[in-house]
Design the sequence.
C-alpha cells in the first residue's frame, strides 16, 4: 500500500519566494530595455519603407499621366506632403504620414519639385526621407523607370550614382 504525505498549509514548498519573484522581474526588465530600442528602430524603418512606396506609386502615376496625356507632370514636395500637378500648380496635396520629406535634388540642385517630361522621362533625382533619426534616399538615375532606396545620413552627404555624374 502506497503512503501519501500531506504538507502543512503554510509550507515553503507551496509557491515562489519574494526573492525568486524579484529576480524574475529584474530579468524581464533587462530584456525589455534591450528589446525596446530595436522595436522602435524597426517601426521607423517601416515608416520610411511605407513613405518610399507611397512616393514610388505617385511617381509611377505621374509618369503614366505624362505619357498618356503627352504633357509634363510635376511631383511637388513639401515637408509633410506631396502632390502631382500639371505645370507647377498642385492638383491634390497628399500627406506622407509620420515621415518628413527633407528635400530633393535634381542633378546637383536642390528643388521643391521633380518634372516628368511628356515622354515620362526625367533628369536624375533623389529625395531625402527622415523619421526618428533614420534617413533614406529614394532615387532614380533618369534613364530607367526603376526607383531605388538607399540608407544615408543626409541627401547632402549622399553620393549615389545620381549625383556623381553632376559637376
Sequence:
Amino acid at each position: 500500500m502506497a503512503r501519501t504525505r500531506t504538507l502543512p498549509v503554510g509550507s515553503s514548498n507551496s509557491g515562489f519566494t519574494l526573492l525568486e519573484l524579484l529576480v524574475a522581474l529584474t530579468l524581464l526588465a533587462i530584456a525589455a530595455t534591450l528589446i525596446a530600442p530595436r522595436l522602435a528602430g524597426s517601426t521607423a524603418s517601416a515608416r520610411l519603407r511605407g513613405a518610399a512606396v507611397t512616393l514610388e506609386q505617385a511617381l509611377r502615376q505621374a509618369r503614366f499621366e505624362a505619357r498618356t496625356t503627352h504633357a509634363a507632370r510635376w511631383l511637388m514636395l513639401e515637408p509633410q506632403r506631396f502632390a502631382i500637378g500639371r505645370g507647377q500648380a498642385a492638383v491634390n496635396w497628399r500627406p506622407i504620414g509620420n515621415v518628413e520629406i527633407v528635400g530633393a535634388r535634381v542633378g546637383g540642385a536642390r528643388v521643391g519639385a521633380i518634372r516628368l517630361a511628356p515622354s515620362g522621362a526625367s533628369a536624375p533625382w533623389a529625395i531625402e526621407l527622415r523619421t526618428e533619426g533614420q534617413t533614406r534616399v529614394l532615387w532614380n538615375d533618369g534613364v530607367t523607370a526603376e526607383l531605388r532606396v538607399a540608407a544615408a545620413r543626409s541627401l547632402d552627404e549622399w553620393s549615389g550614382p545620381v549625383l556623381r555624374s553632376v559637376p
The two ends are 97 Å apart (CA to CA). The first helix runs from residue 18 to 69. Confidence is low (pLDDT under 50) at residues 162-167.
